[in-house]
Write a structure and sequence with these properties.
Elements (H helix, E strand, L loop, with lengths): L29 H11 L3 E2 L11 H13 L11 H15 L5 H4 E4 L1 H13 L5 E6 L5 H7 L3 E6 L9 H7 L4 E7 L11 H13 L3 E5 L25 E6 H4 L8 E5 L1 H14 L5 H11 L3 H25 L2 E2 L7 E5 L9 H12 L1 E2 L1 E2 L12 E5 L4 H15 L2
Parallel strand pairs: 1-11, 3-4, 3-5, 5-6, 6-7
Antiparallel strand pairs: 2-8, 7-8, 9-10, 10-13, 12-13
Helix pairs in contact: 2-11, 3-11, 5-6, 5-10, 12-14
The structure holds 4'-deoxy-4'-aminopyridoxal-5'-phosphate (PMP) and glutamine.
């Protein structure tokens, strides 16, 4: 084996200049940390949100077919026309939105890239961005990278109601945008029309934009409708609506996302996208276009399957003694473990569960910048029933000892 420079003398030499001040001090994401811990301890991973199957066979077969038959060189920067058309048609079919696919849809490498493209494309240094805690982990670092000033408003457990006064106070003349995640990770809140109307009024009053993270749009339960903010009066030209094939087709590793926005806003996001990833693998895009055209039964079956899993896990956790909070959407339920009198915070509890009970979960404090609730954890239920039952068996054994 050749000796590399680093091996010689065992030293890396003098410290290099400091690396990026926003990203370098951050730890590894909680999802990776807990997945690694789960693997190391052979724990059932109800932490990171990914289904445990391999995605639908027809989707994979379509992708394989396209990979062999269709071009594999750079697709158009905004995405392959088939998928952009399918995204526009999907928006009409589910939300009665009239979208011009050529000017108003862009394909990205997952919703993560879409969020970055939208935030970096909109924010100037000093612009304020309203965020709602608990929040998905990529929002804050990207807002800061853009020089934005986060204005966080927090929802309080157990009902996670919109704190209207605090939200209104977070808006001001410097507000550039709000990031709205509905259905909301990690708490499963699905924003209702009155809440969205309140938000829409603020967005309009302060001449702001809304970046709408709707990756769980097809995962709302008990007939709770998902309402895109974009469908509210006055919002069509102020919203950038983000979706993800990862969630809609249980293929989180594909990283195919899409942004829908009025032409001027889409252009702003595209200017960033061209230097972030430029394009996304074309044949995964073609397979996702096929997926978006699936019949209604596919979408309703996704909901009923996931809803049954939510019910199975929530009932089992309640039986064990957790206080399970209501979840109307997403892949997740949150549970309060205060009743067990555990000596430690939620991070310690999740580590303990992983190493001692053999079930990994995510501490909800990871979704807050500071002063988070300390007795909540998030369990993912997007797993096979056998896996969920085994996780409940392990937890029962652990807590009923
Ligand atoms: N937003 C939210 C709220 C999420 O939970 C996730 C998780 N996957 C993403 C964005 C990122 O989606 P993608 O995997 O398509 O990048
Ligand atoms: N969205 C997934 C979750 O909340 C994680 C995605 C990731 O690991 N970055 O679990």
């Amino acid at each position: 084996m050749p000796i590399t420079q680093c091996d010689q003398g065992g030293s890396l030499g003098p410290m290099p200049k400091p690396t990026n001040a926003i990203f370098s001090p951050l730890g590894t994401t909680i999802f990776t940390v807990m997945s690694q811990l789960a693997t190391a301890h052979r724990a059932i991973n109800l932490g990171q949100g990914f289904p445990d199957g391999n995605g639908h066979e027809d989707m994979r077969a379509q992708a394989a077919l396209f990979l062999n038959d269709q071009p594999n060189q750079y697709p158009p920067m905004l995405g392959v026309p088939d998928l952009r058309q399918a995204v526009a048609t999907h928006a009409t079919r589910f939300y009665a939105l009239d979208i011009v696919w050529k000017d108003e849809v862009m394909v990205t490498s997952g919703a993560t890239e879409a969020l970055a493209a939208c935030l970096l494309g909109l924010i100037n240094p000093g612009d304020e961005v309203v965020l709602i805690e608990p929040l998905y982990d990529s929002y804050l670092p990207i807002v800061r990278l853009a020089g934005g000033v986060p204005k966080c408003v927090r929802l309080a457990p157990p009902y996670w109601e919109l704190p209207r006064e605090a939200l209104a106070a977070a808006f001001g003349p410097k507000t550039k945008a709000i990031v709205l995640n509905s259905p909301m990770n990690p708490i499963g809140k699905v924003f209702m029309r009155e809440e969205l109307t309140f938000i829409a009024n603020l967005v309009a009053r302060f001449d702001a934009y809304a970046i709408c993270d709707e990756v769980y749009e097809h995962l709302t339960f008990a007939n709770r409708p998902h309402i895109p903010l974009m469908t509210l009066p006055g919002m069509r030209t102020r919203c950038l609506r983000i979706g993800s094939a990862g969630k809609t087709f249980s293929l989180t590793g594909w990283k195919v996302g899409y942004v829908t926005a009025a032409p001027a806003l889409l252009q702003a996001a595209a200017k960033t996208h061209q230097f972030l990833t430029f394009t996304t693998p074309p044949n995964l895009q073609r397979a996702v276009a096929y997926g978006l055209e699936k019949d209604d039964a596919y979408f309703s079956n996704l909901v009923s399957t996931l809803q049954a899993k939510r019910d199975l896990l929530a009932a089992g956790l309640r039986e064990i003694g957790f206080t399970v909070l209501e979840s109307d959407g997403t892949y997740f339920v949150t549970a309060d473990f205060a009743v067990f009198g555990f000596d430690g915070d939620d991070v310690a509890f999740c580590r303990h569960l992983t190493t001692e009970a053999g079930v990994a979960a995510i501490p909800v404090s990871a979704f807050y910048e500071s002063e988070a609730p300390k007795t909540l954890n998030r369990f993912a239920f997007c797993k096979s029933d056998d896996v969920l039952i085994e996780a409940l068996t392990r937890l029962t054994r652990h807590f009923k000892r």
